[in-house]
Amino acid sequence: MLIFEEHFQDNCRNWVTRSGVDCSLEIKASHYSFDHKRTGDDIYWLSWNSCDFFYELSNFHISIVFEKVSGVDSFGYGFSWGLLDSSNFFEFIISGNGLYRIAQCKNGTFEYFTNWELCSSIQSGNTVNLLEVRRIEDNVEFYINSTLVETFATEQVMDVLGKSFGFVIHDQINIKVHSLIITGVEDEKETTNYNIDVKDSKPETRAAFIEHEAPVGDTLLKIITDLNELVGHSRTKQELFSLANFLKVQTERKQRGMKTVDTSLHLMLYGPPGTGKTTIARLVGRLYKQLGFLERGHVIETDRAGIIGGYIGQTALRVENAVQHALDGVLFIDEAHALVQEDTANDYGKEALQVLLKRMEDQRARFAVVVAGYPSEMEKFIESNPGLKSRINRLFYIDHYMPNELLSIFKKFCIDNGYSIDLSACIVLQRTFEIAYNQRSNNFGNGRFVRTIFERSIEQQANRIVSNLEELDDKEICIITGEDLRFTHQFN
Question: What is the mean pLDDT of the segment spanning 138-161?
Answer without folding.
Answer: 91
